[in-house]
Amino acid sequence: MPAGPGTRTHCPYCALQCAMTLSPPDDDARAVGAPVTVAGRDFPTNRGGLCQKGWTSAQVLRAPDRLTTPLVRDADGELRPASWDEALDVVADGVRRLQAEHGREAVAVFGGGGLTNEKAYALGKFARVVLRTPFIDYNGRFCMASAAAGANRAFGIDRGLPFPLADVGAASAVVLLGSNLAETMPPSTAHLGDVRAQGGLVVVDPRHSATAALTDDGGGLHLQPVPGTDLAVLLGLLHVVLGEGLADEEYLAARTTGADEVRRSVAAWWPERVEQVSGVPADLVRRTARMLAARAALSRREGRGGVVVLTGRGVEQSSQGTATVSAAINLALALGLPGRPGSGYGAITGQGNGQGGREHGQKSDQLPGYRRIDDPAARAHVARVWGVDPDTLPGPGVPAVELLRHLGTPAGPRALLVHGCNLVVSAPDADRVRERLRALDLLVVCDLVPSETTRLAHVVLPVTQWAEEEGTMTSLEGRVLRRRRALPPPPGVRSELDVLHDLAARLGVPTGFPTDPAEVFDELARASAGGVADYSGLSHARLDAAEAAGQALHWPCPEGSAGTPRLFTESFPTPDGRARMVAVDHHGPADDLRRDAPIYLITGRVLQHYQSGAQTRRVPALATAQPEPYVELHPLLADRLGVSDGELVEVTSARGTAVAAAHVTPSARPDAVFMPFHWSGEGSANRLTSDATDPVSGMPEFKVCAVQVRAVGETSRGAADELEVVR
Predict the structure, then answer these.
(1) pLDDT at 31 > cutoff 90
(2) Which of 148, 236, 514, 570 could form a disulfide with 158 if both were Cys (CB 3.0 to 4.6 A apart)?
(3) Last residue of a domain, one of 42, 62, 82
(4) Does residue 394 sit in the same domain as residue 521?
(5) Quick count: other Cβ atoms within 10 Å of Cβ 394?
(6) Do 361 and 341 fall into the same domain?
(7) H helices present in 144-258, as ranges
(8) Range of the domain at 31
(9) What percent of the chain has pLDDT over 90?
(10) Are 444 and 70 in contact (CB under 8 A)?
(11) pLDDT for 542-590, tens place per residue?
């Protein structure tokens, strides 16, 4: 039979959640291997466009090494095929044995920011109700933790963008701090066209990245700080705004607290001092601050063309990440931006469901609805929905990095259940993470393709992927979206909702874990009711009807509400209704330059790949376009080190060594090298990165550390990856 009309859904990758239509081949075409076709769909975030990853996303559905059978490690140490019953029995028996011997805390759970809201919710509930362990966290701790911590303490709520992305396009000035949108979210740059035409794009980035290049030819300003000094730049901008009388004093008096303390704290950050610390010229600091203040004032007078301040991982993945976010928020508040149309502060969420993934229970200190797990009222509400005694719910766990450090130790968890994360590639200080995973008595990994982490597992469970399941995602702008099933999964593959249901039954909880995503969402909505992230007015049916009518639904969306596309228009969800300004100071990276490590390492993404690359490295077009890791060096640094373009270089930090090909380019800094983090093996950037963490958010300092670099004396020999991928 011919295939029906295409299925309306969204891209499986980043939080932009570009709209697309998937059309599976008919039976005859499928028989000869015809692919699922992808078409861009008009939508406010992507406007019909897709990036290269989006256009090729359906190819992962046909990955030749797709996991379709459970695997269990046998007595000889090899992974062998097993039935679902055998594999789940091994998991359940191992959990029971370890908890009997070492207590409930012997088992931990690690989730992912790519899971649907339904799966994230069910995973958090499973950890607290079935395992009754406090030890659950997720890879969103590597993504949005600092932005969440900064927004929560300033605004009383954490939503990546508290306004629709379209508001960015209506602004007259946009500040991008630590975000390379042109490569990580290419369709989003369409929203910057008018801003660039007005010369209003400000990019703060040590590299002259593809996004920084958008400021060329009159498009705006590129501030190029020494790695790890973005906070000093923000303090200098705020010094100028407050010191020169450019702040919106009426807004500060009416809508904020803490302004006087912040004013005193930034008095020490005059532009010449900022230049000494960051390398950004004092005149450029003044010019930037004055331009932003002038455009904010013009917007107040004329009611259009506001100013937007946005942060990304480049400034958030830092041991002072929360402080940097607070400084960005302070700047936005001083200019009177939050709550005004076309203005405000926002954080650019990274993973597809990085927002929803932390709202509904994967984070170590949260219950559904963004409720604190140590709040007695929150515990009582969620326990009623779950039908359990609130006293049986565990307390807060620990952030991801601390959890990983203690795996397999005498006082730490002896088992780990991993869902939607390739820890061996994506976690900092990757060699130590591998060591801790190997020390476990039981490692269970749910995944759709083999990964570097499944290679270490005792049990591997094959699960559905994006186009094979129903559910919801929450985009970077707080919009709740429907993910729809376009085709059935391969025989033998199960949804994680099925896995959690069957494991719960084996562990003595036969009810409470439905497998229908719509039913799970309805329970999620009840559990979130009255919380900060209130989804109680939503359901699959309502989301479907809203989409059919061309309407958007943003959380918070209490029962009877039309949703909240823009926050803070009248007040902030704090006890006094005011935003809280927090004084912060700059101290620099935890792993700074020294004699034996005189060069900064910066890490980040490339256009063709996503996260650990487990999916994108299987797409031939993407793997061909960017087949291997590399080390980006400035020509002056390459000359000083005696390195030629294409030659292998060895990069060594206090934690490990990586080897990759040199890319010599003037877009780099003379005092730094850049490595993308999508690869494993000897080219793994995260073998080098520091697991020093932000004291407030627990986010690791991925983005900057000190390294030594030397030429190896060979030319590139291709990707030295542990994982065989499709070429």
Answers:
(1) no
(2) 148
(3) 62
(4) yes
(5) 17
(6) no
(7) 145-155, 166-169, 181-184, 193-197, 230-243, 249-255
(8) 7-62
(9) 93
(10) no
(11) 999 999 999 999 999 999 999 999 999 999 999 999 999 999 999 999 9
